[in-house]
Design brief:
Strands 5, 6, 7, 8, 9, 10, 11, 12, 13 and 16 form a ten-stranded mixed β-sheet that branches. By secondary structure, the protein is α+β, with helices and mostly antiparallel strands. It is built from 14 helices and 22 strands. The chain binds S-adenosylmethionine.
Length: 475
């Protein structure tokens, strides 16, 4: 960086790494408005920036990741620079959006919020996304990280999401050039995160390997973006090899893509065209990319380039067939219906129920085919829509994912405040004794924190049996 930056700039850049890191969080606008959140926030928060009302900075030394509101999916811990990608991509509510390298889900949860439409914060995430016409396909190539991605998206509560685990070229075979907006938040050497992490391994060989990998993933993008569609390339690293040079190579190979002018953002800098040996037409475009420097922008280092494909032949959108749904048998449907009649006040459409491996799912309104239906290969699905629960012999067992998509207006619910000792007991896995419960019949109850779904309990014999997942229980 000393070789790349002007001397005076380099000293300020270096000094920025000695400033304490800031904890950022982005409010889940599918569940709560920023205004409502700031009125109940259990730690002190301040707006993180002028361009996103959902973006906050935690200004005391609390640990927001351990608060029940985090379990209930009211926010995602994310530093402010990382919030810019989805804001730039700015999907419209009806869009078909692909997040190619999405785990653990920071930007995917943000995209899901934007696809939720009007952000009025009324009703649960499920109510808000039940009829959403857009769909987010969130993909990652690593099995463990994709599981984490699916968990974080479940916490977010959005219904209109398909989680896949595939190589990008496989996705291109399955779906084709259909996506309105594609995000490639590429695996990178992570130099921009040095302030947050210790012991990061870095070498020129690692940078070169990352650049090769990024070029490889980007090569699949033209087979996924529709004519006229957008592709946002982003990294959290400074190295020109992984930023300007990768974009320059892409533009040289994919002549129907151009870099678009970014919106004006305070503290954001432009791409450094002289850091890639590109021809003048491409160099002029690299200057439209965005660099977030830690000494100019109130966040960590990032790079973003918004690419747009030229309008062309009619898109394939209208030709995408619907997903081949497997409806429940009449016995399975009866189990669901009995549960829903006793527990739910929100009606879910029967013609979108789907069964896979004895589990019942609710499909998004726009459930697209996975590829095999078009004679190609099938995308590897980790989660499609919302997992409602398990179909066990003679009974239905609701999923934790369902609880996270609901609030206390959607189901028979227990409403405890964040500081209530009964909530603390519930989160630690304890059953609740009768005197702690309001009167009512036996059966499933949604446990909520201040009305936001947190998990399930089952009332029987005067006690509430705890069904909060073992892996999430407090020690
Ligand atoms: N967008 C994520 C977020 O905001 O939370 C962070 C993504 S991280 C920078 C890069 C991700 O790329 C990693 O999760 C990694 O598993 C994934 N990855 C690596 N190689 C990939 C490939 N060939 N195709 C898709 N994803 C890949």
């Amino acid at each position: 960086m000393r070789d790349l930056l002007p001397a005076a700039d380099y000293e300020v850049f270096l000094a920025a790494f000695d400033r304490p890191r800031r904890i950022g969080l982005r409010v889940n606008m599918l569940k709560i408005t920023p205004h409502h959140f700031s009125s109940i926030a259990p730690f002190s928060v301040a707006p993180a920036c002028g361009w996103d009302p959902a973006a906050f900075i935690v200004t005391d030394d609390s640990r927001p990741g351990r608060h029940p509101y985090h379990d209930a999916g009211l926010y995602y811990l994310q530093e402010p620079s990382a919030m810019l990608a989805a804001a730039f991509l700015a999907p419209a509510p009806g869009d078909l959006v692909l997040d190619l390298a999405a785990a653990p889900g920071g930007k995917a949860t943000h995209l899901a919020s934007l696809l939720g439409g009007a952000l009025d914060g009324r009703g649960s995430a499920l109510r808000r996304t039940l009829d959403a016409t857009g769909l987010l396909v969130a993909n990652d190539v690593h099995a463990g990280r994709t599981r984490l991605l699916a968990e974080n998206l479940a916490r977010w509560g959005a219904l209109n999401v398909l989680v896949t685990q595939d190589e990008p070229e496989r996705l291109a075979e399955c779906f084709g050039r259909v996506f309105d907006r594609v995000l490639l938040d590429a695996p990178c050497s992570g130099e921009g995160l040095f302030r947050r992490m210790e012991g990061v391994e870095l070498s020129e060989a690692i940078v070169a390997a990352c650049a090769r990998r990024q070029g490889g993933i980007l090569a699949s993008a033209p087979d996924l973006v529709r004519p006229g569609g957008h592709l946002l390339y982003s990294t959290c690293t400074f190295s020109p090899e992984e930023n300007e040079q990768v974009v320059a190579a892409f533009l040289a190979a994919a002549s129907d893509f151009t870099v678009e002018m970014p919106p004006a953002i305070d503290g954001a800098d432009r791409g450094q065209s002289e850091w890639a040996a590109a021809d003048p037409l491409i160099a002029a475009q690299l200057a439209l990319a965005v660099r977030l420097w830690p000494h100019h922008f109130p966040g960590e280092g990032h790079f973003l380039a918004m690419l747009r494909r030229r309008e062309g032949a009619k898109t394939q959108m209208a030709e995408l067939p619907p997903f081949d749904r497997r409806p429940p048998t009449s016995d399975q449907y009866r189990l669901w219906r009995d549960f829903a009649a006793a527990t739910m006040t929100l009606d879910l459409p029967a013609d979108r129920l789907h069964v896979h491996a004895d589990r019942l799912y609710l499909l998004p309104r726009r459930a697209i085919a996975l590829g095999a239906e078009r004679g190609g290969r099938r995308a590897h699905v980790v989660r499609y829509g919302l997992l409602l629960g398990d179909l066990r012999p003679g009974r239905f067992h609701p999923a934790h994912d369902l609880a996270l998509a609901l609030n206390d207006a959607d189901a028979v619910a227990m409403r405890w405040s964040a500081g209530d000792p009964r909530l603390a007991a519930y989160l630690s896995g304890a059953d609740l004794p009768g005197p702690d419960l309001p009167p009512g019949p036996d059966g499933w109850m949604l446990v909520t924190v201040d009305g936001f779904g947190l998990g399930w309990g089952k009332r029987s014999g005067g006690r509430l049996k705890n069904h909060f997942p073992h892996a999430l229980r407090r020690r």
